[in-house]
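Tokens as discussed.
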């Protein structure tokens, strides 16, 4: 049997080859890369300007900033169906919230809100003459702030890591064994929680 290729196939190959020529690459640079690069400079300007290499809070600020347009675009222009898409948006926004709190070290304030009182600093940094009751309350605040910080740090990496897909397969197999007509999409939507940075796209 003789195999023939349509002219359109060779035309497409030729266009791909032509696209690699220097003048097309120059066009792409000025039309797309340069424009996007300038946009990126303005978008990241503040966090880049403030960046210092010795403190992890600056890395977290850059990461947090980079997730903001992803959350916005996925929420308002994403092509995915609503249920899993909005779960991704919620997970991204939660990651941004944690990154901002970690980089700003806001856990004392968070502990104060949870316990309903503020750190008593009336006795200075050394705490000379500080009543035992004040010391105990301050220690309780500091301990809770460290606990909350550690808890959210672990939560952040669970959000980035995502779920174990084998758990979904097990859940689906169980549902199918109980009801062969089980809707696969329904099982997925029930299992999926929006986590998994590698799959945050639109």
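Sequence:
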């Amino acid at each position: 049997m003789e195999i023939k290729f349509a002219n359109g196939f060779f035309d497409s190959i030729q266009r791909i080859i032509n696209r690699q020529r220097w003048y097309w690459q120059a066009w792409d640079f000025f039309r797309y890369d340069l424009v996007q690069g300038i946009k990126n400079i303005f978008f990241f300007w503040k966090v880049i300007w403030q960046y210092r290499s010795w403190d992890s809070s600056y890395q977290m600020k850059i990461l947090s900033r980079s997730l903001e347009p992803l959350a916005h675009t996925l929420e308002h222009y994403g092509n995915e169906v609503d249920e899993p898409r909005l779960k991704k948006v919620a997970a991204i926004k939660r990651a941004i919230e944690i990154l901002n709190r970690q980089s700003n070290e806001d856990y004392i304030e968070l502990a104060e809100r949870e316990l309903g009182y503020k750190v008593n600093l009336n006795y200075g940094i050394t705490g000379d003459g500080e009543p035992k009751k004040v010391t105990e309350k301050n220690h309780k605040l500091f301990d809770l702030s460290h606990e909350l910080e550690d808890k959210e740090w672990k939560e952040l990496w669970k959000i980035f890591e995502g779920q174990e897909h084998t758990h979904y397969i097990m859940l689906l197999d169980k549902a199918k064994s109980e009801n062969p007509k089980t809707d696969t999409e329904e099982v997925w939507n029930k299992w999926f929680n929006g986590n998994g940075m590698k799959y945050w796209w639109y």
